[in-house]
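DATA SHEET
Item: assembly model
Revision: 1
Owner: S.N.
Input lines:
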Amino acid sequence: MRGGWKAGVARAAGAASRLAGRGGTSLPGKVALRLDPHAIRTLSSGLQRTAVISATNGKTTTAAMVAAILDRGSARLVTNSAGANMAGGIAAALLAGEGDTGLFEVDEFWLDRVVPELEPGALLLANLFRDQLDRYGELESIADRWAGVVARAAGTTLVLNADDPLVADLGRDRPDAVYFGVEDTAMAMPGLQHAADSTHCRRCGAPYVYDAVFLGHQGHYHCPTGDARRPAPAIAATEIVLDGVRGARFTLRTPEGDAPVALPLPGLYNVYNALAAAALARALGAPLADVAAGLQAVAAAFGRAETVRVGARDLSIMLVKNPAGANEVLRTLALEDGEHDLLAVLNDRVADGRDVSWVWDADFELLAGRVRRATCSGTRAAEMALRLKYAGVPAGRIAVEEDLAAALDRALGDAPDTRPAAPPAPLFALPTYTAMLALREELVRRGAAGSSFG
Amino acid sequence: MAERPVLRVCALYPDLMNIYADRGNLLLLERRCAWRGLGFRLTGAGIGDAVDPDAHDLFYLGGGQDRDQVLCAHDLVEHKSAALHAAAARGAAILAVCGGYQLLGRSYELADQTIPGIGLLDLTTVRHEGPRLIGNVAIEVELPGLEGPRVLAGFENHAGRTELGARERPLGRVLRGHGNTGRSGAEGARRGHVVGTYLHGPLLPKNAWFADWLTATALGLDLPLDPLDDALEDAAHRSARRAAGV
């Protein structure tokens, strides 16, 4: 029992809340912070080392990868793996956990409040994309906040994405920063995607020149005026092979040597998550063998490329919440042959962003000609359906069913005719955040998925 | 046989002023033209590019991040203002959303600088210290060529408060949401074929009927245009209105 009487009160509040059936993932943390505004500092003081992860996309998956790596050593992790990543969730994880190593994903907006309290030994900043403008505001303002965090964390090892110009620039005055990036130009796209942000130099405003674009605005870039250039990454992926929705293979290049990695998670975006995790785990002292083995053993995080069996069909859940993330999911789906069945669930609750305009920035055009049936659900089901129609999916293949349980039945029941011996094609669910939680709850209720809330 | 009309659209700063999925507005215009057998031609005009006032029927200007908006404001005044005034004078349609709307006015005052506008509409915008005006919004509008009032639904997210000059008329009356200042009950501004509004979301997918009004206005066609199967468009419109509480 750590943290004294205040922590005890907070734990009791959490227990009472759970008994009352009200979830309570972060409630004890909120109570602890009310009793002691520095509860995170107090509770984390006993940890031997702490690492913090922030990014627009991939926080939860990257944290799961780092945990899978560190689990191979002797570390005992204290982590907010349920994804409650604001101050209350972190304090709650500290209250609930016993261990020597803290591993926390932190909401990009909360980083400047949480990092000074945790004083982490390593800070991973993985990417910044346009996301929920009604909640987070403009990208530049988040970058400015992060620059402030970095300036006040002089004793922290920075782990940064070399390929994201906005993030890489945070290490400009930090010669000890560790960079990761993709070194396989065969992965380059023909050009910047529509939703690309930060395409202009943060120093002088000139448009960056890209030799290769890998994902959103991530790639090999330099400023034509010569004041910014992609740093050389110490941790890199080469010889990347994307294997549809099943996984990806690459060679992990590190200063300690190379290792082949067969990642059980799909898409280039998960290769980036793996590089970020490898760089952070290495900064925490993990040996290369553990890094490679941990990455190969990682399981899909909650609702992130997680596949469950519902009756006779596989249902693969791929969270989409902003244009850059959605584009990577759509690109990965497009790697699969044939026409797909989709269950697209668009909610506009606060945690999703009330503003659903982002679906028009995502490249659903990648699926034009590739959709057999799209069932659209959620509080803004009709807007989702309209987006697909204007992306080139024939209106006759699009169904609107706001109620999620009914939409799930409809999407599952309408399976394509296949040879008797072949399993029915999977259904791909593309839910926003609260829609993902609701979908998982519905699947748990039907006995198809395990509860990650324990 | 009459020549097929072509909607010639000029998108201003499509790489910088596109923050609220402005692409969706252009996509609505393009597809609906194609489905009706109308031509569609899109031209982008970026920083430093000259604009031919007679080569386009509709000009579109979206919103951007603060820094990008400042860059574009100075370029707009220097390189494009005269052309846009000339285009408006000959009856071309202009749709400006959010940051673009602010730039059609006289100026936008921030704490540490004043961003110039091109003065196509008589309005001024001031950055407010208070909270941003964010949320679903619905307004009632009356437009030439359409009988009775109609509803436009969308989403707004702006720190600026926009005051209209004495001669300037709003685009519509706020039913739900904040509008130009959060207090005046006025939203946007319209003078003839020049329309400015804070409604994104994007605006045209949520209001396909307004996309048709713009197309007809820009091309000088009579309303209504040939009917399309708008079942999903109508459902999205209802859903956006419902989100705003109308």
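QC remark: Chain B has one domain: 6-244.
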